[in-house]
Amino acid sequence: MAKATHSPEPSGADTLLKLIASSSTLEFDSEREGVWIEVIRKMDEVYSDLLRYEVDLESKNAELEEAQAFVTNVIESVSDILVVCDARGTVQQANSAFQQTSGLALAEIAGRNIADMIDFDHRTKLPPLLAPRSGTEVVDGELRFRATGGSSDLFAINSSPRHDHRGRFIGVVLTGRPIGELRRAYEALHKAHRELQRAQRQLVEQEKMASLGRLVAGVAHELNNPISFVYGNVHTLMRYRTSLVGYLDAIHEQPVGDDIAALRSDLRIDAILDDFGPLIEGTLEGAVRISEIVKNLRRLSFSKLGEVERVNIERLINTAVLWAGRTKQHRVDIQIEVEPDLWISGNEGQLHQVIVNLVENAIDAMRVTELPRLLVGAARQGGEIAFRITDNGPGIDKDHLSHIFEPFFTTKRVGEGTGLGLWISYGIVREHGGELSATNEPQGGATFAFALPAA
Ligand SMILES: Nc1ncnc2c1ncn2[C@@H]1O[C@H](COP(=O)(O)OP(=O)(O)O)[C@@H](O)[C@H]1O
Ligand SMILES: [Mg+2]
User: Which residue has the higher pLDDT, 36 or 25?
Assistant: First the structure.
């Protein structure tokens, strides 16, 4: 250890020597004097060492204070929240970002359990963050804190474990940054993306419908001609039949030769005459059905709104539901929920057809449903009137959802469905400024919905 060479004050040894020299009454023994001087020198050394230690200590202390101030300053200036907890969750330290978030001063925070400062709904998320662990494993989580006047923004939290010098878990350091803004931005983005996808699908759908419409219009146009002559010919055949049958009946009343009688039986003339009527009637019925379909297709393909009038929704729905139930055998519990005094401007006949189609489809779908229930509703929604037809049937097969509005798509047996109902309804709703859509209900059943501008 180096000795101090200069001392600012007179050293203890000097003072003592002066004291000894100034004393004239003392007898000096040279040996004892040497010992004294040695003792005094040692004392002097110890004293100066002490002084040096003190100076060292002071400078170390100053350094320590500076370091502490630095650390505190850093912690205080981070915008992230920082909370130090012991193993039980008692807060030992919290930075000003946390004090601002919670609206509490450090004195109110320190010593309290962190659980008291967390939003009630988020308390279950705390234990994993406080869980003891070895090593440096960081646990992530999300928390909302209590704040003045409610709860804070959502924070993304990192919990780092703290250990003592023997490696025992003594608590955690929680750091966190607000992510509510980010989350909201993300959700907005997600929503915009979904809207975009929907718009795109809708565009594709509209384009598909439009081209199908053109195709169907072409086919309908082509069919119109042959159908009209099938129709005309059948009517002529009916007239011819009456003449022929009258004539043959007259002949059969006359006595005829054996060969003619044999021919009559071999050719099963009587059976043919009996069949004649039903065959022609069946053909006529077929022709009528085909021309009905063609008429529908043509009407829609070249669809214009036609006559526009003020339509009262309550009356429209009541008559359509009555009409739709008319031909159906099985009983369905139909509930109508329509706000009174709703009006739109449109073509009443066409809108009637839409509701009838949708209700008929629903009743058909619920054929084997135990307690079939149908809800037909209309309500004002801003400037629009929202229509809803919900059944509790089997719903629409996932693979069929994107096809049900196509012309001729049907899952019904031949003769039971044409597959035109929804296609026609889709077109009519679009002409009226809405969009017909179908969804499956989570608890089963299907909902058809559309909204039209209120009058
Ligand atoms: N409420 C509904 N529940 C389940 N499936 C339905 C419902 N409405 C329509 N569908 C399905 O959509 C298909 C097409 O309906 P639509 O165009 O009216 O033709 P159709 O009634 O002649 O079959 C139906 O065959 C059926 O598979
Ligand atoms: Mg139908």
Answer: 36
